[in-house]
Design goal:
Length: 128
């Protein structure tokens, strides 16, 4: 049974090692994993089932990319907190994510320490 006092997070990335990395960091910060998905279509379905407090969503995935999944999630819940994950260094990708309705984005190649810091910042924003 989920702990209702913990932030429920849906982690979506087509790379299992990235899923594990974010899962470990989120759990170390007191979050509970609401689910894992490896494509945008599954992300939307899991979002509808679990209504997590936060979605970490990879930009580049098979079946349905992250931007399209973001739009679908926001059509279900316009107040959803979605943070995009990317390896892209391009400011235009970050801008596209924000314009599409993402709350923020995180570079996946920051390393463990960098990801821990960025997730702390994102969680502080969401819990504010």
């Amino acid at each position: 049974m989920p702990d209702s006092s913990k932030l429920q997070v849906l982690v979506v990335d087509d790379d299992p090692s990235t899923q594990r990395l974010f899962t470990v960091v989120l759990q170390s910060q007191g979050c509970e994993i609401a689910g894992l998905a490896d494509n945008g279509a599954d992300a939307v379905a899991l979002f509808k089932e679990s209504s997590p407090g936060l979605v970490l969503l990879d930009v580049d995935m098979p079946e349905m990319n992250g931007i399209d999944a973001l739009k679908e999630i926001l059509s279900v819940d316009s107040a959803a907190s979605v943070v995009m994950l990317t390896t892209e260094k391009s400011q235009s990708v970050a801008g596209d994510c924000i314009l599409a309705g993402a709350k923020d984005y995180i570079q996946k190649d920051l390393g463990l320490e960098g990801i821990h810091v960025r997730l702390s910042e994102v969680l502080a924003e969401i819990n504010a």
